[in-house]
Amino acid sequence: xxFITGYAENAAVGNGHLDPGMAVLTKPFAMDDLAAxxxxxxxx
Length: 44
What we know:
This protein is of the alpha+beta class. The protein is 39% helix and 18% strand. It is built from two helices and two strands. The longest helix has 13 residues. The termini are close together.
C-alpha cells in the first residue's frame, strides 16, 4: 500500500513505523520516485 501525502512524512505516519508492504511518498515528487516506490513495493 502506498500512501501519498502533502504532509511531512513524520506527520503522516504517526509513530514513524509502517507495516511491511506499506510506504509513504510525500508531495511533490518526481515520476521516477513514484515508479521506484511502486517497483519496490511490488518486488517486496
